[in-house]
Design goal:
about 280 residues; alpha+beta; five-stranded antiparallel beta sheet; three-stranded antiparallel beta sheet; 6 helices
């Protein structure tokens, strides 16, 4: 009798387990999300976790550490932290570190830095190619540097009374320094210097010769180039220029050439025999 009761009890328990499992399976069929657990506020939809922004995975268990992080100035997010390009610092690469520019120029060209987001103004006055950068052409990457010191504290331009072959005469008075005449344009200084030295007595052409004497690639800057030295170097407190007149290689006529005063930036034409300061330039 006891065996019958025990068998009856076991049979009832087995039936209960079977019915429970059947109910669970039925519930899963009716609700595919019944056994799905979504983490990080994910929501189950038709048996699959719909994850909130910034999370992924079967259960929304994988977090995108870079979600919502914006890295400025071409920086890129790596595992939640902005990896900043050369010259930029800050949690979002938002700040330019001007103290890095000189070091960067040891391994990069000026145009490389500007193309990478470095402000062009931060390059002016930095040492490159043997001089202080005062001009950069952002189209082709060429530019110019000024010598780090004056080549003379007072020298004549030379060639007074000589009609120099191949040297254009710039006659327009610059107000406020529009460089639209041959001989005064950016890039004319080197050719002007060569023409002066070729067309003058070897003992003449004093200002141009002082510049060429420090190296074959150095020249007396033309009027437009000299103005960039004033604007991009002297006005920014770099270059060690005197508050005085500096010769350009731009000629007015056989007796006069153009100078610039490194105070208000005015340009004048003066007699070639006057003693004026000289600062050389070179291109890169």
């Amino acid at each position: 009798m006891k065996k019958i009761k025990l068998l009856t009890l076991l049979s009832s328990l087995f039936t209960l387990v079977v019915l429970t499992e059947s109910c669970d399976k039925a519930e899963e069929l009716l609700d595919p999300c019944a056994s799905v657990t979504c983490q990080n506020d994910g929501v189950c939809v038709d048996g699959t976790c719909d994850c909130p922004d910034g999370f992924s995975g079967t259960s929304c268990e994988i977090q995108d550490l870079c979600f919502g992080i914006t890295c400025e100035n071409n920086g890129s997010c790596i595992e939640g932290i902005c990896d900043c390009p050369d010259g930029y610092i800050g949690s979002s690469c938002e700040n330019f570190d001007s103290t890095q520019v000189q070091a960067l120029l040891a391994n990069h060209t000026p145009i490389d830095l500007v193309s990478g987001g470095v402000p062009i103004d931060s390059l002016y006055g930095k040492m490159y190619n043997g001089g202080l950068i005062f001009y950069l052409n952002t189209t082709d990457g060429t530019g110019m540097v000024a010598a780090t010191e004056d080549q003379s504290t007072g020298a004549g331009w030379g060639c007074s009374g000589t009609d120099i072959s191949g040297l254009a005469n710039a006659t327009m008075f610059p107000v406020p320094n529009p460089e639209t005449e041959a001989g005064a344009l950016i890039g004319d200084g080197a050719a002007n210097t060569t023409a002066i030295l070729d067309g003058c007595n070897p003992n003449d052409g004093i200002a141009a010769r002082l510049c060429r004497d420090i190296g074959a690639e150095w020249f007396l800057p033309c009027r437009g180039e000299l103005n960039l030295m004033y604007t991009n170097l002297h006005q920014n407190g770099t270059g060690g220029f005197a508050v005085d007149f500096y010769w350009s290689s731009t000629e007015l006529d056989v007796s006069s050439a153009w100078v610039q005063h490194f105070n208000a930036g005015d340009q004048f034409n003066v007699n070639k025999d006057f003693n004026v300061l000289v600062r050389a330039a070179r291109a890169f």
